Amino acid sequence: MTGTNIPLGSKEDETALGSRTDALAADLVVARIETLLQVLRRRRTELKAQIANLQSVQPSAETRLTELTAALVGQMSDSVAHLNLLVDQAELFVQELTRDAPSA
User: Fold this and answer.
1) Is the per-residue pLDDT at 43 higher than 90?
2) DSSP state of 58
3) What pTM value is reported for the model?
4) What is d(CA 34, CA 8) in angstroms, rounded to the nearest whole number?
């Protein structure tokens, strides 16, 4: 069985179609990243609230509990810092993607 090529149109039509496809793909990627950013921001806010809650607890007579709480707060604070970096990088990527994306 042999195939038949049906021309889509001129080279300009193909280029325009490719540009529209690229723009649509960029829009979809941006929308997905924005959705993920909402989740990351919400979780970061929740984590900060948990840290504040742990820090508001009075030190315990049980030294080990106080040490563990301090260690937990330290780890949670590191997680917030990582989330901050991830959010910043994702926001920058979205800015670059929307700036460089071809218009539909």
Assistant:
1) yes
2) P
3) 0.72
4) 35
